[in-house]
């Protein structure tokens, strides 16, 4: 005991000495500048690609972006040679569930899995997501408050992962998409007593309380479930959940706390209720009609339409025990969602990239680009939905979403040309986040362990 105690004292002493060093140091260490040669650069600010550019990265941010001919790189400087690749801003997925696994469709997992299982999954999924080129994500629904802790651990540098904009559990009505329905009334799964479950709310007062409680525990964004869902039981995706007044209170409380709010909404009326209530983004938006699209445009509401995962839900998910009820619901909304995506694109509604990763395996996020182009977007438009537009939706435009001086050096590269075939983004070969390289299969340069 004594030895341990004295080692702690010695350690504290050393730490305090280390802590003093910067104050009496006269010479500040020279800033570390890394130069990235970009053969083709799509910076996210428009549709254009510029050739032979050099990006200077100082510490964690972009210092300058200039034509190669006008930059003299000092001898001995660190150079990352992506001159045979297309360089883009780190991608952003606005709808993920990093704590979820796409092989846990059997209902038994409601009862067998512990919060620790979700946390282990999140550590693995965060890394896969980052290595797939997604340097920021919005996580819109997990156990309380897994996404907050995950965000903090990643920000500390303790585990690799994207920047996380964290929500708590999606707020649901009793019997709604976020509740566990159709079991015996004796069945309960809860980490907290009912009044502290952070998820189920009925009436404006409870909605107010749950939003405030989630803010208290550090969420960046509120997620509310404004209609039934596909992967829940006993509810219809088309049916509104929460009254207009409840949604309005949720939006007011979120905005008062400086948070944005996202609404899960498949059904036509629920989508309109959420837009009129002042919610910032409509997730899924599967059954949106022309009036809904018009309202979204009028209110500047983003649509986040997850049009890839239908393939997985109607394929692999069935093998992993997805119930017949859910299969039928997906068949009903999946095809319509893709058609309505096309209508929304044509109408010029604000669209941000979001995939519902966790419903399908994390790391496959970029597979959605193909469908976004197939259903009406140009490749640059689809990429901007996952960069500049997504950054705007998550409220981080000052820091991420484009390759411009002052932003975080969140930079990816692909060998093929994604503007010709957007599927190139399914094979991201280089990933830098905040000036640190997390993946490099292109230059075979230094990698993190
Ligand atoms: Zn979701």
Low-confidence stretches: 1-6, 8-25
Strand content range: 15-25%
Whole-number radius of gyration?
Answer: 23 Å
Largest sheet: 7 strands, mixed
Helix/strand order: HEEEEEHHEHEHEHEHEHEHHHHHHEEE
Helix % is 25-40%
Assembly type of the chains comes to: single chain
Q: What structural category do the secondary elements indicate?
A: alpha/beta
Mean pLDDT: 91
Spatial ordering of strands, largest sheet: 3-2-1-4-12-13-14
* Number of helical segments with 4 or more residues: 14
What is the strand tally? Answer: 14
**Which ligands occur here?**
zinc ion
Principal-axis shape: globular
Termini separation: 35 Å
Task: Characterise this structure.
This protein has 449 residues and is of the alpha/beta class. Helix content is 34%, strand content 19%. The protein is built from 14 helices and 14 strands. The protein has helices spanning 2-24, 108-112, 115-131, 146-156, 204-216, 244-256, 268-276, 290-299, 310-313, 316-319, 324-347, 367-374, 379-385, 388-393; strands at 33-41, 50-58, 61-67, 78-89, 91-96, 134-139, 163-166, 221-225, 260-265, 281-284, 302-304, 411-414, 430-433, 436-440. It has a 7-stranded mixed β-sheet with strand order 3-2-1-4-12-13-14, with no helix packed on it. A 4-stranded parallel β-sheet has the order 8-9-10-11. Helix 5 (204-216) runs parallel beside helix 6 and helix 7 runs parallel beside helix 8. It is globular. The chain starts with a helix and ends in a 9-residue tail after the last strand. Zinc ion binds at residues 95, 97, 140-141, 356.
